[in-house]
Design goal:
Layout lengths: L7 H15 L3 E7 H14 L3 E7 L7 H18 L3
Parallel strand pairs: 1-2
Helix pairs in contact: 1-2, 2-3
Protein name: DUF218 domain-containing protein
């Protein structure tokens, strides 16, 4: 899958197109735990798919501040740009 644009929203939109082509009504998305909530938001806002987000449990505690900053920036970008 080559999402366009290469963002979480692009992945959601590309997955919806693929699901439509394949006749899928639902998908499971595997991602890292810090990213799971934003993935869920993108799929809920940008697709009609029933989506299950499966977070990978392993989180490097030393990188938590980086994850928090990245996810916060991603949410701000998502809500400002209204990409869907």
């Amino acid at each position: 899958m080559q999402p366009k644009p290469g963002t979480t929203t692009g992945e959601a939109l590309t997955m919806e197109k693929l699901a439509e082509e394949e006749g899928w009504a639902s998908v499971a998305v595997v991602t890292n735990r810090p990213h799971a909530r934003r993935v869920r938001t993108n799929f809920e806002q940008c697709t009609e798919l029933d989506t299950i987000v499966i977070p990978v449990d392993d989180v490097d505690i030393a990188r938590v501040p980086i994850h928090v900053a990245r996810e916060l920036a991603g949410y701000i970008k998502f809500w400002i740009n209204s990409p869907c």
